[in-house]
Amino acid sequence: MLRRLLDLFRGKPVLVGGAQKLEEGMAKVVEIGDVMAGGTQVVLCRVEGKVYALDAQCPHDGGRIIGGPLVDGKYAVCPLHNYHFDPRSGVAVRGACPKAKTYAASERDGSIELRV
Fold it and tell me: What's the pLDDT score for residue 51?
C-alpha cells in the first residue's frame, strides 16, 4: 500500500480502468489515491477522440472543475464562476482565471494511464 502511494508521488503511471466508457465530449472526475491523505481528484475529458486530464481543483478561489458534458463538446467547467477550461492545454477560454494544472494521459489496453 505504501509503495503504491509513493509511486503516485514519484510520477509513475496510474491506471484508470474503463477508458471506453468515457464518451466523446464528456468529463469524469476520478480520485487518485486517498484524497484525505494527499491524493488528488482528476477530471478526465475526451475531446476529438483523445483523453486529457485536468486537476479538479480550479486555480481560482477554491472551486472544482466538474464531470459531465463538456461545453461545446470540448471545454471543462468550474461552476463556481462559470470558467471554461480547454483540457488539452488547461487554458481558461472563458473567464480571467489562471491555467488549470494538466496531467499526461494516454489510453492503453482499455485503461487510461495518468502521470500525476
Answer: 97
